[in-house]
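Quick one - inputs below.
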Amino acid sequence: MTLVDPELSGRVLERALSRGGDFAELYAEARRGFSISLDDGRVERPQGGRERGACLRVVLGDSSYYGHVDGHAEEDLLRVAGSVAQAVRGEATAPARLGAARAAGGHEVRISPDQVEASRKADLLRACDEHARAASAEVAQVRVSYAESQREVEVFNSEGRAAADDRTRVRLGVQVVARRDGRVETGSDTRGGHAGWELVEKDPEEVAEKAARRALTLLDAVDAPTGRLPVVVGNGFGGVLLHEAVGHGLEADAVQKRASVYAGRLGDRLAESFVTAYDDGRRPGDWGSDGIDDEGTPTRRTTVIENGRLVSYLYDVLRARKDGVESTGNGRRESFRHLPVPRMTNTFFAPGDATPEGLIGEIERGLYAVSFGGGQVEPATGDFVFGVSEGYLIEGGKVTAPVRGATLVGNGIEALAAVDGIAADLEIATGYCGKAGQTVPAGVGQPHVRIRELTVGGTAA
Amino acid sequence: MNLDEIARRAVEAAVDAGATDAEAWAEEGVSRRIRVYDGEVESLSDAGGRGVGVRGFVDGRSGYAYGTDLSEDGIVETARAARTAAEAADADEYGGLPEEFGSTPLDGLASSAMGDWSTESKVELTLEVERAARRRPGVSQVENAVYSDAEGSVALANSRGFVAGYGATQAWAYASAFAGEGADLMTGMGIGLGRDPGALDPEAIGAEAAERALALVGARQPESRRCPVVLDAFVAASFIGFIGSMLSAESVQRGRSLFADREGDEIADPALALADDATDPEGPATAPFDGEGSPTRRTPLIEGGRLLTFLFDARTARRAGRATTANASRGSYRSPPSVGTSNLVVEPGEGDLEQLFRAAGDGLYVTEVAGLHSGVNPVSGTFSVGASGRLVENGEPAGPVRELTIASDLVSMLQAVRAVGSEARWVPLGGSVKAPPILIGEMAVSGS
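Output:
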């Protein structure tokens, strides 16, 4: 695979630096995707696309100059380099020599999704629809969506980096609406990863059944309790709490702008000594995994919290340079139309040695929050509010009635300090993370985690 | 190949591949974005894009494909992909191309003066916006000042022989300023837009950002009560934009709109008149035809207090047994058309802002709302949203207030409109709306 010849990349970078600059980079990408959905029993909106494009940036001091073009034609790449250089005021600098870019690999894709006929994808949606409806006569609506994306990426920079990656992702999502008398509840589930068709082909009905079960369970839900309660947060998608309330505050751009409560806290003890958390873009096949990040840095496992201490922020190249450290491989971008910014890959608590039953068994009265709907976090303070989409009462050490309308209100740094138990059942779920106008796939996850006490805003009087 | 030829060729290739009908949207454009901070350029971008998107119909099924490769082979590949995708869909009895094609003659969408502006002169304009905000005493920081523009052309062709195109230019600038400090740090935004940078007034944009922030310094939480509320043009535009999205026939037919059974009903006070107008020469969303080639027009939505119609594309119109209102909108060649508003325009009334304050007597002037989209229940229309602004006392603006919520439901709010201001402006935040300030007779304000 070659998107842009290294010799041409060299000339593009040379032109980009013709009026000065500390750093120049050419990011080239070829992406193709397909999606299809089912709503109200009808398969609709089959759509595919193929795009090629490139982003060129020049950095001088704290200023970034960039441009992007559709396509990889030589004249377009040279023109955008010239146009970006026009904005820079300084002495010409010369880029380092470039070699060929080799794909990083590391994530197995057994069946390339673009080799699977669209009719089989439509059949997958129908199978999910049938399974969800078969769960109960109370299932009123089913919506199923399937999406695949394949991206070939190449990065060349003025420091001689030449790197490439080949990324394939698939994702299946089911949303079920259940109705009983006047009451309407929604449940959903997804499965996705850095993997091929094989991931969704096997037992897709599990996803449908889980979504249906969630919606049906909520039909029996009682009003949520109110007050300060111990909370056990579920594995997998429960990790969105860590992602939002802690992870974003560890991204180096927020830290350097002092827009994070974690600024200046490196080395501090923030959690109990059994608490360790990682950002890991290398985990094979996970949703937020890649071979390299979007600046060509190999992805890696970065320990952010080690035995309770804050040990690292998450860096892209520019912010790392500013702090005199190495990039942690977190420079990510939505596409060639965007600049990279520090972003999480897969962020999760390391497994502990408790069991979910053990964590729950010690609670006299509390909340078991399995999954979250919407949430909001104020990054500068870490204050958060999360809606619990699937939750249960814990009474006498046992999970009892489902609850609805519960919200968790708290502060990231306080909640982290209050983690008092971690189970061994790590699971990573498929999130989409929005920041700076860009959306990227991010793995959220954790084992079951217990928080000593959180404010639960409920609906019960 | 030029854009017309690309679109025509794509349609031809889709039909050759077995499509019973086809449509292609080809587009190219360049855009710039300049962000300054503290007197220096923080980022500057220059971007170009082009591509084609094809809808292929095969016996009532439809599929979509897009691509950036505009060579002969690339176009043919995209066209075939659209036709192949269609096979995976179930048949849709309402699908298909519209019955009505054409271009509404419009002038002034593109300014030739765009080319007279160098990058340096646009940077200077952006810096001037920042300086204008900074000059106001009490402004502690200008978080950012941003200039952005776009020049683009599109062409649409279909298998019924329609082919047409147009070009348009747009320039925007905005700034957000901070005033006060610590827990009393307030932000304000100023914005301007036009067909070229010459239409932007950097002094006015910077001053607006500063004044909006300064007006909130020292704000307190007001007491809870029910009172008249004046929505400023920004806030009025946010509500109107939300109401517009609920008037899409797609929302109505999918059971996601509180206006579903209200066509013909009196849903507002007669003082409020609202239209969707894709032909307003100043409108950012103005175009001669919609995303599937139907000629654009002005569609009155609310007049004399009555809800006159929903907004339709060809598909939703067929399903409702109606005619399209030419509201098939397109984000870009990367997505198929779907029902959307063009420019929502509120008919201006008689009085200026001071007259609205006098009519309010004692009440609240809201200059900012937060969380509107998550705060409104789309089925019932009830809402409770965070807000800030000023008190109105004895018909005059008084002390600043924040940490309050305003609550009502959309229909009650529309029916409680008491006066519509004369000073309408374009607000291009999340849609394109032209709105004046609006006085609502009564709303629930909750504070302390």
